[in-house]
Amino acid sequence: MPITKLSDLADPELNPCLVIKVGSSLLVDDDGVRTVWLNGLVGEISEARRRGQNVIVVSSGSVALGARTLGLDKGGRGSLADAQASAAVGQIALSGMWAQLLGNHGLTAAQMLVTLMDLEDRRRYLNITATIERLLDAGVVPVINENDSITTQELRFGDNDRLAARVAQAAGASSVLLMSDIDGLYDRHPKEPGATRLEVVKGITPEIKAMASTESNSGMGSGGMVSKLQAVEIAAIAGACVVIGNGFHERPVERVMGSRDEAGVGTLFLPRRRRGASKPGARKVWLGGRLRTKGKIIIDDGAMKALIHEGASLLAKGVIDVDGRFRRGDPVSIVNSEGTVVANGLSEYDAKEIHAIRRLHSNEQQTVLGYAPRSSVVHRDLMSIKYVPPVA
Fold first, then answer.
1. How far does the chain reach from its first CA to its final CA, in angstroms?
2. pLDDT tens-digit series, residues 131-179
3. Is 261 marked as a binding-site residue?
4. Which ranges of the chain does DSSP label H, i.e. alpha helix?
5. Which SMART domains does this chain map to (predicted)?
6. Cα–Cα dist 31/34, whole Å
7. 363 appears as a binding residue in the annotation
8. 148: annotated binding-site residue?
9. Is 225 assigned a ligand-binding role in the annotation?
10. Any binding-site annotation on 158?
11. Is 73 annotated as a binding residue?
């Protein structure tokens, strides 16, 4: 049975592995580390472990902690050098804090620092998957953060919402809890009169995206509601649900999941699959969750329908144009004429070759290429569909 409501998150049969993302503003305030709150959260993690659930923590906070130690203004984000130095100093404190508090409950913590490219590269992604799997088998609580001491702006996740979703993919987790400074997704900005929180959302539609705000109420975090919805889309590729909930409460996990006497408070995002589609394999999950590709292949509506509804490979006849420089085997985005990403995949041709054979039938391609054409531009076995059309 799939997860359908917030209370299902506490059921180890429905939710055997939970990723909890903790934002900087939850860990650190103007007075320093929010120790009392953090102790309460660790207690809830211990309770989840006793229920039989694996827990992975994706924790921000290294830059904020390091900036306090170094006495840097702007939370350590005044410059890239400040952020990297703050992260290098703060990560020691952050990992030590988690290890000590989890240890107080008889739990062992493991630190994992990753970069965007660690999860974009297939071999390194598999190494991360294997490490997480072994740690969970040993009863360890992995504490994962982006390695901000070495990443640069163009080669980073930018926030831990998307990192948490990618970690969930790698770990095969069933759910992601994004603890933030807001109770969930509202139908308009929550400060506006009459704003209503959505309890359950099935699939990210243009209407849902229009409700998102790029603002972060605290000003300390680097993400907003837009990045959280992007995390929802990433997690959905692997069939994982995502919950957005407010962490600024005692026992925040229980507040989100609900208790015997009270309903949960948050927004539950359920993955929506194409009708008749099976759960994608591990390679397709990795492909679909990539945040960086080498280029784009623009396709027509007929090709889009064939990919989505028929599970077909992408043929040159359906290609309108190519954008970017890439070679055979490189990851590419397949987009429609409006710019919507339909799928990610591995190209069977260089960009120049696809440009040369676009709109051509297979029996016309050999003359252009000088050799017998391959069966497709992107094969369906090396493609992950990302776009789910709205239900009519």
1. 25
2. 999 999 999 999 999 988 887 654 456 678 989 999 999 999 999 999 9
3. no
4. 24-27, 35-51, 62-70, 80-103, 116-120, 122-137, 160-171, 206-210, 225-237, 252-257, 282-289, 301-310, 351-357, 362-369
5. PUA
6. 8
7. no
8. yes
9. yes
10. no
11. no
